[in-house]
Design a protein that fits this description.
This protein is about 50% helix and about 20% strand. It is α+β, with helices and mostly antiparallel strands. It has two domains: about 120 residues, no CATH class; about 140 residues, no CATH class. The strands form four sheets. The chain has a three-stranded antiparallel beta sheet with strand order 1-4-3. Strands 7-9-8 form a three-stranded mixed beta sheet. The chain has a two-stranded antiparallel ribbon with strand order 2-5. Helix 8 crosses helix 11. The N terminus and C terminus are likely disordered.
Amino acid sequence: MTLFYFSIYFILNRNKSEIKGVIKITNKQITKANMNRVKELLGEVEELTPDKFKSILDNLASFHQYSLYNQIILHFAGCSQVAGYKKWKELDRTVKKGQKAVWILAPWFKKVKKEKEEDQEKQKEVLHGFFSVPVFDIGQTEGKPIKRGLTTGSDIDFEELRKATEKAGWTVVFKPLEIAKGGYVTSDNGQIVLNSNLDELENTGTLIHEWVHKELKHPKNGTPARVAEQQAETATYLVCKVLGIERKSVFYLKSWGLSENILKDFGKVDKVVKKIIKGVESNGSNLAETQKDSSA
């Protein structure tokens, strides 16, 4: 076993041994099934390829606020963002009819008496066991779109932008994705996939970003992901600046880091920026009139 595999295998098994002996649950059947499934998955760690293992770790990172056991349960249940039934209602979303919950483990604390301190008897909470609670993935819900906070304002109507994109030869489709993922493109077709869980404002900035990817032939041309994202978001920021779209590109660029390649390839980026702006203008946008007013 390589050191990479051994490290995570050790962490997983250490966590397992730490919990062993304290589990005392009420809804035993669900919880026992969860625990057994996790133990089976732990035993499969050695059989994973590096790429598959990296994919699993990337998904686990999106559930970093949960325990390791719950991260594994949510990953293999195919979840992206989860909450309880009541929490989704607070977010103006409802669970679709017929959807089945994913059951995760919640800690069960019990109050016990502590030794008297200055004639005062105090209590403390100690971990007494675990019980299962139901959660639902965002894909199992419907209702009010959720804001991502990357695109915060726009002078361009989303439908106007979508029509310009499709006129350029790309097809825009919607699929429910995790909130952290605005959209994506693939090299095998002309589709741009946007997140149906996000509102039109968020999708406005994302559509430009994915349009840039298509024009730069990502990922088909083999550009490393880090460089491809830098190129795409740099072009997105410039397009958004001209079109009157407020985009917090600095946060996105920081998440991917900066590279000297962005300056070397700036000619490609600038060419795509001009092409997209021209495409929006030629689709009947009021951009030209807006620029005329602002320069007066």
